[in-house]
Write a structure and sequence with these properties.
The chain is an alpha/beta fold. It has 14 helices and twelve strands. The structure holds 2-acetamido-2-deoxy-beta-D-glucopyranose (4 copies).
Length: 379
């Protein structure tokens, strides 16, 4: 009896001591305990203390007529036959901008090369580029001409008549889900990605083929942000007013740089957009709002990056799915990441040990904010 009591006291005492330790370490590490940390703590507690985000439905619901207005811009470039009569495994929307000719060219000849995917992987992936119009009138006219030519050659541009600006990204999101609903509803998976993202298509295809075999539903994978706080500083790119979003924490969402949903989720998200106020201009947060209505939650995949750029190493290439910030080295990365010797690099006990060690070195450093999480070293 006495012994028990003492053991209990001892463990509580240890708990207390370790709590204090952790707290003081936190305080020391973050010597700038500023509003940044405070707002994160606030939003995290909000995220984990409230049981649901149902209130979002009530306050952001609008009538179907009002909701339709957010995305009802006429199509300037389109190709309704992209998916027609084909067994599309993945419809991949690249969020591009009218002037990004070079990025699109690089994508088409690397990870977005549909014939390579068909020949090498034996599946049909459709890569299309979503955009609005150039915000600047004189440039717009010249760029539209060039876009017409590009579309004649490739037939893969989907353009609506809205200004292609940062604050219209949610309009672009609406475009993607509407277009999918109207023209490619049978695609088994839908992905959306930035045009400066590198996607390891072979790794991605193998992953979703596995998921497809298990008939997964309600799938939404990517780099998940949980309990992210709205930014209230007016000078931030991501500034969010209280009128637009009054709560302390965003619903969970995946980084807009690249995420994948299953076909059933794409359909549900589209349905959700039909009754929501889409003035929330951060498109990935808006996706999180739609997902609440759709009853879907995002799942973390350690090899999807957020803002992060992958370390360049074959042990990473073997597993990577997306990496952000590759406007200039897509061709190089495609070449090294799909080289035949990469596939076997971690096979066998030695290979496995070697790659685990390399990944721990690369990913498990303190203050490692630029890349996949340390967890990726062990998967
Ligand atoms: C796409 O890949 C095929 C090989 O499957 C290749 O012949 C073709 O040149 C590539 N296309 C581009 C634009 O690089
Ligand atoms: C979004 O596009 C519409 C239609 O072109 C335009 O009127 C509006 O100003 C744009 N919004 C922003 C924030 O750029
Ligand atoms: C949508 O929300 C904004 C505030 O973010 C508001 O100004 C606007 O009136 C709302 N639109 C509709 C149709 O309710
Ligand atoms: C959201 O609210 C609308 C009414 O405003 C209701 O018809 C709908 O069922 C609600 N959806 C969810 C998922 O709660």
């Amino acid at each position: 009896m006495f012994k028990n009591c003492r053991r209990v006291r001892k463990s509580t005492f240890l708990q207390l001591v370790s709590m204090c330790c952790i707290l003081s370490v936190l305080m020391v590490c973050w010597d700038q305990v500023d509003h940044h940390v405070v707002s994160h703590v606030k939003s995290y507690s909000y995220r984990y203390l409230i049981s649901s985000y149902d209130f979002i439905n009530k306050s952001l619901s609008v009538s179907p007529k009002e909701a339709a207005q957010f995305g009802s811009f006429p199509f300037l470039l389109n190709n309704e036959n992209i998916c027609k009569d084909q067994d599309v495994l993945l419809l991949l929307f690249v969020k591009s901008s009218p002037g990004n000719f070079k990025r699109r060219r690089a994508i088409r000849s690397t990870w977005g090369n549909e014939s390579y995917i068909k020949n090498e992987l034996g599946v049909i992936v459709k890569v299309v580029f979503a955009m609005g119009v150039h915000p600047d009138i004189p440039s717009k006219i010249i760029i539209q001409k060039t876009l017409h030519k590009e579309h004649m050659n490739h037939g893969d541009l989907i353009q609506q008549d809205f200004l292609d600006t940062f604050h219209n990204l949610t309009v672009k999101l609406l475009l993607q889900f509407r277009w999918t609903h109207e023209n490619c509803a049978h695609a088994r998976f839908l992905m959306t990605a930035d045009d400066d993202v590198f996607i390891h298509l072979p790794n991605l295809v193998h992953h979703i083929q596995d998921l497809g075999r298990q008939n997964v539903r309600d799938l939404w994978i990517g780099h998940v942000h949980r309990g992210a706080p709205p930014i209230r500083q007016k000078n931030s790119k991501y500034y969010m007013s209280f009128e637009m979003y009054q709560w302390s924490s965003y619903p969970d969402y995946t980084a807009g740089a690249g995420y994948v949903v299953s076909g059933d989720v794409a359909a549900k998200i589209y349905q959700a957009t039909l009754s929501l106020n889409a003035s929330m201009y951060i498109d990935d947060v808006f996706m999180g709002i739609c997902a609440i209505l759709a009853g879907v939650s995002p799942q973390e995949h350690v090899y999807f990056s957020g803002e992060a750029k992958t370390p360049y190493h074959p042990c990473i290439y073997e597993k990577m799915i997306t990496s952000h910030g590759h406007a200039d080295d897509v061709r190089y990365l495609w070449k090294v990441a799909t080289a035949p010797q990469v596939q076997e690099i971690s096979s066998g006990l030695l290979g496995n040990l070697y790659c685990t060690a390399v990944k721990i070195m690369l990913l498990c450093k303190p203050y490692n904010s630029n890349t996949y999480s340390c967890m990726a070293a062990f998967t």
